[in-house]
Amino acid sequence: MEIRDERIDAGKAFDWGRTSKEYAKYRDIYPEEFYQKIVDRGLCLKGQKVLDLGTGTGVLPRNMYRFGAKWIGTDISPEQIEQAKLLAAEGNMDIEFQAVSTEQVDYPAGSFDVVTACQCFWYFDHEKVMPKLAELLKPEGKLLILYMAWLPYEDPIAGKSEELVLKYNPDWSGAGEKRHPIWIPDVAYQDFEMEEHEEYEVMVPFTKESWHGRMLACRGVGASLSGKELESWDAEHRELLDRIAPEQFEIKHYAALAVLKKKQK
Length: 265
Description:
seven-stranded mixed sheet; globular
């Protein structure tokens, strides 16, 4: 499904379906600490029902399945959902996945203890979505927003890789990340209040091949470049890594979370 949003990449079209197989292979990279911080807050555990928005290939519900929550994952891309179903089946995991945009999600009021949005919150139409999420949550329900990004100004391999993405896709708005709290739009505070937020540094291990795959499976590359552009980027990025990277290395990232509590009315 092709998406255009003037808030993102200056309106350049992207389609996660074009890179879903690479996404499934290369973007399951969150470290154990990322998941433990969720568990430490008593979220997404046994006895809870969780809706994961923008689930992609189901990375969050598949990695947290062991903690016993009942998961439903939704995503706007049918190809992403297809990969999520395949991977969940391989792991013998009972997770429900649906190809539907967050704006069109339809479940009875009070269905969920937790709603999660990992690496996707900025894509939503918040005027429509925030009241809907409040309605979907139980009275004591929580909205958990999660994010992780490499730090291009602190990590030279990440920085050089990002420069190459911008060479081929200069309007890519995913570049230039620095540590900061997750952005929450003002409209969210009509239905939610901030319970807490945290930002922390993580080192994520890669090989040259897995880092190349991670970069390929980003919005600015595999989801949006033409076939000819992608072929040129692929060759140039592999050559770059052969020059600047050892066979195995770590990339400096920061991770962030925000826990929003449903307001009592």
